[in-house]
Amino acid sequence: MLTQQTGVLPPAWINESLAADLPGLTGFARGLTNDLDAVTAGLTLLWSPGGTEGTVRRIKKIKRQLYGLTEFELSRKMILLA
Fold this sequence. Notes:
Layout: H1 10-20, H2 23-34, H3 36-44, H4 50-66, H5 72-81
């Protein structure tokens, strides 16, 4: 499902997982049913939040490195220039 981006299969897979009555798998399947629209979109759309996630991780890394060492303005400049 993940590599071929088949977003129409999750409801059938969820039903099969719930019928199997395996403890870990049924909990996971129930969690997927809470937001089935998001699961389907994630398996069908080509859009990826990778660029945003990378930027957030970079900013968090800089903040961790500078915590307690500089005032706000210098930290802000380093994040904007990095």
